[in-house]
Specification:
mainly alpha, elongated
Length: 29
């Protein structure tokens, strides 16, 4: 559901912006 997805997407975006180095570690798995 899109309504459920948006809060998760915003939270994930905030984490990525505050910790850019977290992205490579996620995609390496």
């Amino acid at each position: 559901d899109v309504v459920q997805f948006w809060p998760l997407a915003r939270t994930l975006g905030t984490i990525v912006l505050s910790q850019p180095q977290i992205l490579p570690s996620i995609f390496k798995q």
